[in-house]
Write a structure and sequence with these properties.
With 601 residues, this protein is mostly helical. Among the domains are: 132-181 and 188-256, no CATH class; 317-539, no CATH class. Helices cover 64% and strands 2% of the residues. The protein has a three-stranded mixed beta sheet with strand order 1-3-2, covered by helices on one side. It starts with a helix and ends with a helix.
């Protein structure tokens, strides 16, 4: 046997061994024990969080709202502490490869639940663009109304709003006493979704909308009874609950909210922020390490932006170009319908080109819709809203049509790629189809993976030839710069003493985001420590892995197979993503070398 063939055979053997260590085959007693633990805990979780259960397609608790009192928080903590102890008796070495991945993900979920209790994060049940009272506001549109039972279950949930609202208020009052609140500076306007529920007529309440037209299959007398009950419940439970929250917000929360800004200024704030980094970014990096990556990425992206400014022959410096983009009428829609139509055009253009980069696409469709009016003034520019696979609706890509002069058209292609396809909708809808994965994994959303994928998807638009003008390419770079700035700003605010003005100036100086968007984004980072880090760190990891695979596999690298594999994992932590992709690379390379060896023989 020639030496070269012998050497190649030895390399194949090593690679096959490496690949097999990730693909197989152990069955042990720990598998049954692990399955019993997570199935029992998942049943517990569904019961504790009824609206989450509904979102996953489980209707067993469709007539409930979850309780949130201090006693409920402690009871859950004690339960999850026992689960963690049970997990410590198990070992990945005694599980199949797939179960080991499940185990690592499940361990993280339980650890995050426990960390939230220890840090008392539950005392801050809202941030600058979302919260429990806004989630409740989605019940009319997120509930399927097919029969009288659906309506009665919905009304039972509304009846619970009064007592559960009081539980939230008690938690937030405790937060005031302990100094664990949102910073006062971000609270202006956050009462708008509350005020939207304070109507004088029941039929003007968003919660009454499902009763305006009921299915004809429900007999008229039963419809009349449901209408009467709805009027009573909304009058006696819903509106008073929101009125109570509105009064508390203005009389106690705003006056009592902390005047500090960063997470490090909370009780045990450094640990609080490090836990947030682990939760959202799934990395064990220090704030300084993340800050430095951000600075490096800002410099790289700025150089690419300067090339486009030269390309369009703009006569002015970088700040002047940003001002031009923010103020020239050619870049802005004249109506909400025009903006939505522009987004819809790109959504369909992208759909037709997805097979260039993907072999497997989801069955579930998605639509384009405006951000609801009650939250639009302080909401981000767009978001994906998923739907359960079993529901009678698709997902939705929300586009913010508030203040059209703040919603530049050149950002729409990147936003559509991120929120719709091949971004959040593609990733999330495919994850829901993975019936062989445990429910706790199939229904999870790990921010570093999900948001990293969304940002990665924006750059895939270049390969699919989605961007049509230099300004749209600049919009993509501005979005990437926005996420790089987040690494600098989030760590700056939450660990390095940055002021709000400093953060506003930094984002405004480096991106083409409108002044309104800059303000809402900075308040979001202030109110949601760590989450903003997940985008760029996730995308950074994905691109490094892709380059690694391209280098290792050479001309045999198949981008469609790479994407199908990554999306086929579902939502995973960045360390698991790296392990799994490298194992896939080893398996691909082993197959190539084996094929070459057979040809040589």
């Amino acid at each position: 046997m020639p030496y070269a063939v012998s050497m190649k055979a030895g390399l194949i053997a090593v690679l096959v061994l490496l690949a097999s260590s990730f693909t197989t085959v152990v069955a042990a007693d720990d598998s049954a024990a692990f399955k019993k633990i997570y199935e029992q805990e998942w049943a517990f979780r569904l019961k504790e969080f009824p609206t989450m259960a509904s979102a996953t397609g489980n209707d067993d608790y469709a007539n409930k709202l979850g309780h949130v009192s201090e006693a409920d928080q402690k009871r859950r903590f004690d339960y999850w502490s026992r689960v963690q102890q049970q997990l410590q008796a198990l070992s990945c070495e005694q599980l199949s490869h797939e179960d080991c991945v499940n185990f690592r993900l499940y361990e993280k979920q339980i650890s995050d639940f426990l960390a939230d209790y220890v840090s008392k994060a539950y005392l801050i049940p809202f941030n600058s663009d979302w919260g429990f009272y806004m989630e409740w506001g989605r019940l009319p549109s997120d509930t399927d109304f097919n029969n009288a039972a659906d309506y009665n279950n919905y009304l039972s949930r509304l009846e619970m709003m009064g007592p559960v609202m009081e539980e939230y208020i008690v938690l937030m009052r405790t937060g005031i006493e302990l100094g664990i609140t949102q910073p006062r500076v971000i609270l202006e306007g956050r009462d708008e979704p509350i005020k939207a529920q304070l109507v004088k007529r029941v039929d003007a309440s968003p919660f009454f909308a499902p009763f305006m037209e009921m299915p004809s299959s429900i007999p008229s007398p039963e419809q009349a009874a449901l209408l009467a009950r709805a009027q009573q419940v909304i009058t006696e439970s819903v509106i008073p609950a929101y009125q109570r929250l509105f009064e508390f917000f203005h009389q106690e929360y705003i006056p009592g909210a902390r005047e500090t800004l960063g997470a490090y200024q909370l009780p045990d704030g450094a640990a609080y922020y490090q836990a947030a980094i682990r939760r959202y970014a799934t990395v064990d990096m220090s704030p300084q390490e993340i800050h430095d990556i951000g600075l490096s990425e800002v410099a790289r992206i700025r150089a690419e932006m300067d090339v486009i400014i030269q390309q369009v022959e703009f006569a002015g410096d970088f700040p002047a170009f940003l001002e031009f983009l923010r103020t020239d009428a050619q870049f802005y829609a004249r109506s909400a319908k025009e903006l939505l139509a522009f987004a819809s055009y790109y959504a369909k253009k992208i759909d037709g080109r997805l097979p260039i980069l993907f072999g497997h696409l989801p069955r579930q469709p998605y639509g384009v819709a405006p951000v609801p009016d009650d939250i639009a003034p302080f909401y981000t520019g767009g978001r994906y809203v998923p739907a359960a696979l079993e529901s009678h609706r698709g997902g939705y890509y929300w586009v913010n049509t508030y203040q059209l002069e703040s919603r530049p058209l050149y950002n729409i292609p990147a936003l559509t790629l991120h929120e719709g396809a091949p971004g959040h909708h593609t990733q999330g809808a495919l994850a829901l189809e993975m019936r062989d994965q445990p429910d706790f994994r199939r229904n999870d959303y790990i921010s570093a993976y999900g948001e990293g994928w969304g940002l990665y998807a924006e750059k895939l638009g270049v390969e699919m030839d989605i961007y049509e003008t230099p300004y749209e390419h600049f919009g993509r770079l501005s979005y990437e710069m926005w996420r790089a700035c987040r690494l600098v700003i989030d760590t700056g605010v939450h660990s390095m003493g940055w002021t709000r003005a400093q953060a506003l100036d930094y984002l405004a100086a480096n991106t083409a985001l409108s002044v309104h968007e800059v303000t809402t984004e900075i308040d979001r980072y202030i109110s949601w420590p760590g989450q903003a880090l997940s985008y760029k760190l996730g995308e950074y990891t994905l691109w490094n892995l892709r380059r690694e695979a391209e280098s290792a596999l050479g001309e045999n690298f198949d981008v469609r197979a790479f994407h199908d594999f990554v999306l086929g994992l579902g939502s995973v932590t960045l360390d698991i993503l790296q392990d799994e992709v490298r194992a896939w690379m080893a398996s691909q390379l082993a197959s190539q070398l084996a094929s070459h060896s057979d040809e040589a023989a």
